[in-house]
Amino acid sequence: MSAFHNKHELITNKIFSGELIMPHRYVFVLTNLCNLDCSFCFQDRDRRDDAMTTDDWLKVVEQLPEYARVTFTGGEPLAFKDFEVIVNAVAKKHDCNMITNGLLLSEKKIDFILSKKNFKVLSISIDDIGNLNRDVKPRQWEKLVSQINYFHKRKAELNSDCVLDIKTVVLDKNAKDLLAIHRYSVETLGANTHAFQFLKGSHLQHSDKMHDMVEMYATSHAPTYEHFDVILEQLELVRQYNQHSQCNAFVHPKICDLSSADPIPKVSYINSERFRPKDFQPCKFPWSSVHINVDGNLFPCIAVSMGNVKNTALEDIVTGELFTEFKDALSKHLVEGCNRCGWIRPNPKLNIIDSITLK
Fold first, then answer.
1. Residue 290's CB: how many other CB atoms inside 10 A?
2. Is 3.20.20.70 the CATH classification of the domain at 3-346?
3. Is the peptide bond before 253 cis (omega within 30 degrees of 0)?
4. Closest CA to 356 of 253, 281, 273
5. Radical SAM core domain: from which residue to which, for each copy (predicted)?
């Protein structure tokens, strides 16, 4: 994962400087349909008449730059009927990965994934042991664990370097169990990496509903954690555990380094409902990563459509006036819609680590 992040940063800087034009990472929201109904999910799971067809996705793949990396997501990406067709087209030329709840995995699908040299990361969302927060039934959980074991078996047989990544949404419900979840992910599931994701601070981020650009300036109100002190204590225990673990763990947003030898700092600002954009560094993320929604709308991080790939060429959207306006805005300073985005970084000139949480 660190190799990917280093490459991503290098390419991002080249795009930002104008040396390259097209983004590096493309998130394909293959479908908004899902086999689960998680209470904290922000997506609309109704079937859509305007959803991208298989041919629509294949046309997008043809337009990707040579250095592109593709992330398959949803909804649940494995619910897309031609999932293998799209993965096969992408993996012929580009690195790719998938974020899934894992319940639709099968030995056949795992064999298919591992047969693709360019399929680099299988990310499975697990928020507690048993995924009870996602209303996963015991039999479903047992099957998932069995499929993960099969993944490791076939990975070894094929000498694959595909990474198993576990993603955990940080909730008040699992606050006291973060270390236990991490240990289980490492010791039982064999995770190579584990990412802890805080709840986003604005409904505009990575939404499947498009909004007007002016809305990203409107005051945002992030959900706050009742047990935030417990969360920090648990993350510190994770950091201590990782001093003797082969698993790389991350926090998103990066409020601390879970691989560091130093204790994590006070980070009360991340639990603030309110957001002060000028306390943070300007963002290059819109240059490096874009989402293509289930309906074909392309957007960077905040769900403002920059154009639709079903009727406009990818490069024309990326270099268009609307996208240029968006990037110009975030190149100066962040906006309210960036509240608790996973890519925000505090301004190093300001000491906000110990600042009092805004009310």
1. 23
2. yes
3. yes
4. 273
5. 19-239
